[in-house]
Structures are given as C-alpha cells and as structure tokens.
Amino acid sequence: MQLSETVEWGLHACLALAMMPKGARLPARALAEYHGIKPSYFSKAMQKLVAAGIIQSVEGRSGGLAMAKPAEDVSLLQIVVALEDHKTFFRCTEIRRKGPCAAAPKHYRTPCNIARVMHKADAEWRRVLATTSLADLRQSAAAEPIPGVDKATQDWLAETGAVRGL
C-alpha cells in the first residue's frame, strides 16, 4: 500500500498548525514554503482538510490557516481519509472466480483467505491511526526535538512575519 505524498504534507501541515499558539494563523503559501512544497499543489491538499473541518482558512489581511478544532480531537485517520480518495486500501476483484479452473459461483460465498487477511490488516492500521491524535504527535515531536530546528523555525517565522492573528 502506498499513500499519496499529500498525506505526508497534510500530516506535517496539521502538526505545524497544532504547534502554533492559540489564535495564530499561517498563510498557506508560508506553510508550503516552510515544507519546501509548491504552493499550488499544497493548496489543493489544504482545501481538502478545510472541507473536512480539520483546519480552517481565514480570509483577509490577518488571515491564514489554523486548526479548526483542538489537536486532541483530530485523529491521524481523519487527516488521511480527508486526503485520500480510497475507502479501503485493498480492493478484492474476486480473481479466484475467473479463469479456466474457476469453480461454480456457489463455492465463493465468503471472502477468500487473502481478502480476509488484507481487510484485517486494513482495519488494524486504521485502528492505529484512529487512536493516535494530532496532540499525540505534537507531544512526541516536542519530546524528541531535532537540534536546531526549533530555533531555526522561530527565526524563520519572525523574519517572514508569517504568523498572523495573535
């Protein structure tokens, strides 16, 4: 299974917004620049997160992106589902029913063992993402800082004047 790169963008963007002071907003362009992503592509991903009610977009001079709800109330699964079009990540096409050696349809009343295992795996990774909140990510990021990144981020934010709404 491979998720699109917009999932990575969305998770990092939401984490960055969750780490901002309450009331702070960042323009989408600044957030894209911070992550080294083309703003046009990044903007489309952010629009999906806005539509899902995970982040909000405030228009105007002091506008920008902010979390729409507390980080504790946002699961990683919500972010993934908002950004991916897939309902499930394994799609069984019942190939066992095709070909020259396939049995009569009456013999295929239950999913095959492959489909059962794949659906179980899908449910398990969704469970992990559903039980991990953005606040959990924020806490682990704060507990394991990368040397120099915090200071560089604070300096960059101050230089660009990207933080708005405070």
TrEMBL record:
It comes from the Bacteria. One of its GO terms (cellular component) is cytosol. GO terms for molecular function: DNA-binding transcription factor activity. It comes from Celeribacter persicus. This is BadM/Rrf2 family transcriptional regulator.
